[in-house]
Structure prediction request, 287 residues.
Amino acid sequence: MTDLANNQAALIKRLQAENDALRAELDETNQGVLALYSELDNQADQLRQASDLKSRFLSYMSHEFRTPLGSILSITSLLSDELDGPLGVEQHKQVAFISTATRELSNMVDDLLDLAKIEAGRITISPDWFDMLDLFAALRGMFRPIVDTGNVDLIFEEPKGLPQLFTDDKKLAQILRNFIANSLKFTSQGEVRVSARLEGANQIRFAVSDTGIGIASELHDTLFEDFSQVDSPLQKRLRGTGLGLSLCKRFATLLGGRVGVESTPGVGSTFFVSIPLALDEDGADEA
Prediction:
């Protein structure tokens, strides 16, 4: 019996030692995990601060650029109207060049400002009922001066039989405006066609199709990323931030939808956005 008791005591002592060693190892592991969590929290804070600083910088810079750009556009308009005296043919060309370049820079500033607002969570979604005929009419009028002087036809298919939409028409118009401007930029001849059709019972799909240069399939996944641009000789001649399509994707998400592209090099491209017929107001408030 004495030997049995001694063996049991030795076993218990060994188990206690192993348990103590395991506890010590667990405590050390827990301390390491806590230290790792603390380091991750610090890095997350640093990333949040960096993101906040970037958004504030973009917002500040964009606002500061707007005033001088507006002044330049006003001056070029006065010169073009010859209110201070007649201009020669070459002078008119130079003023037009300044005006075009200033508008391009102004559009870039607007894109940067929108990006800063989205990243800071300061974009307001204001849904309301509206008719697609009014939306298409506004877009047609906006692009008429560009199309009338070019070799590309801008065609809006009449949205027959489609219901009214309950969404933020300004954000939707901005998506379509970017799609149309992009298609016109990369289409030297042919047409750009804007259409809308029902997609299922509760969705509507807007599409902008062109007969432009087209985009290789391996680039489709990156087109809607920030600062993404198509690598082509035409792109090198046309300035832009590479934010237009990225903003389209972000706006579509805020409207409860998605964007996409179908394209074949040398044939053309179709950019589309699908959104709900009626935006959930609770989701809009959260945006």
